[in-house]
Amino acid sequence: MSLILDPAAQDLLFREARTANAFTDEPVTDEQVQAIYDLVKYGPTAFNQSPLRVTLVRSAEARERLVRHMSEGNRPKTATAPLAAILSADNEFHEELPHLLPHAPQVKDAFFSERPVREGAATLNASLQAAYFIVGVRAAGLAAGPMTGVDFEGVRKEFLDDDHTPLMVVNIGRPGPDAWFPRSPRLAYDQVVTTV
Ligand SMILES: Cc1cc2nc3c(=O)[nH]c(=O)nc-3n(C[C@H](O)[C@H](O)[C@H](O)COP(=O)(O)O)c2cc1C
Predict the structure, then answer these.
(1) Atom of ligand 1 nearest to the CA of 77
(2) Where are the alpha helices (DSSP H) in the chain?
(3) How far is the CA of 144 from the centre of ligand 1 (A)?
(4) Which of 20, 21, 139, 173 is the most buried (most CB within 10 A)?
(5) Statement: residue 163 has pLDDT above 90
(6) Residue 20 CB-density burial (10 A; 0-12 exposed, 13-18 middle, 19+ buried)
(7) What pTM value is reported for the model?
(8) Residue closest to 180 by CA, chosen among 17, 13, 22, 12
(9) Pick from 85, 68, 71: which is nearest to 28 by CA?
(10) Hey, which of 16, 18, 19, 72 would you mutate to test ligand 1's pocket, going by the most ligand atoms within 8 Å of its Cβ?
(11) From ligand 1's centre to the CA of 72, what distance in Å?
(12) Is 27 left (phi over 0), alpha (psi -120 to 50) or beta?
């Protein structure tokens, strides 16, 4: 056995975990989201820059505004999920760097004084954090439905500002009946891994 993580946890996080397209009515509480964040915040980012920002879309009014910016096929599930979250990258993450990287405060100006550089770094590292977030949702016993079928410019204008780049919308809840299609195949190890 090469993996030391408990097999039940492996199932919960990966083998049995699915992308849900339908949910029960059971609410997702702020306490659950906080527990998820307080776990996944430890996932690594470059220079510990931590650019992920999360906007919880809870009110019926805000949910309606979000659904308008979803692609047709994503609308019903986003309208009915117990919780929808907009995951975005903060392109001004460098302002927090002296706090986040106390042993190397010079990094803020040495590496991130230019906005295009920050945007590239923020998109990569917030996307990594989005993946940690999805796995964290699973660790809470919930299912995530990440979506990029989104009018991102519309979402940015509606919910964010020019300093934030929306990356995906994630529906969160307990999977309901008919929550998923049959599991699709994955690439095999030999198709993906080469050794030089
Ligand atoms: C970044 C990302 C974007 C996705 N966008 C959509 C989407 O817009 N609409 C949708 O129905 N599914 C979307 N999906 C779901 C994927 O199709 C699904 O996660 C994948 O097929 C694996 O499904 P499984 O977890 O059930 O095995 C997205 C998934 C990810 C990770």
Answers:
(1) 11
(2) 7-10, 30-40, 60-67, 75-80, 97-100, 107-112, 115-139, 152-159, 189-192
(3) 9
(4) 173
(5) yes
(6) buried
(7) 0.97
(8) 22
(9) 85
(10) 19
(11) 15
(12) beta
Q: How far apart (Å, rounded) are the C-alpha atoms in residues 79 and 76?
A: 5
As a whole number of angstroms, the distance between CA 92 and CA 118 comes to: 7
Residue found by looking up tokens 């776990």 in the block: 39
Q: Atom 23, ligand 1: which residue's CA is nearest?
A: 19
Maximum distance among all alpha carbons in the chain? 54
Q: Tens digit of pLDDT for each residue in 112-159?
A: 999 999 999 999 999 999 999 999 999 999 999 999 999 999 999 999
pLDDT-derived band at 17 (thresholds 50, 70, 90) equals very high
> Ligand 1: distance of its center to the CA of 196 in Å?
32
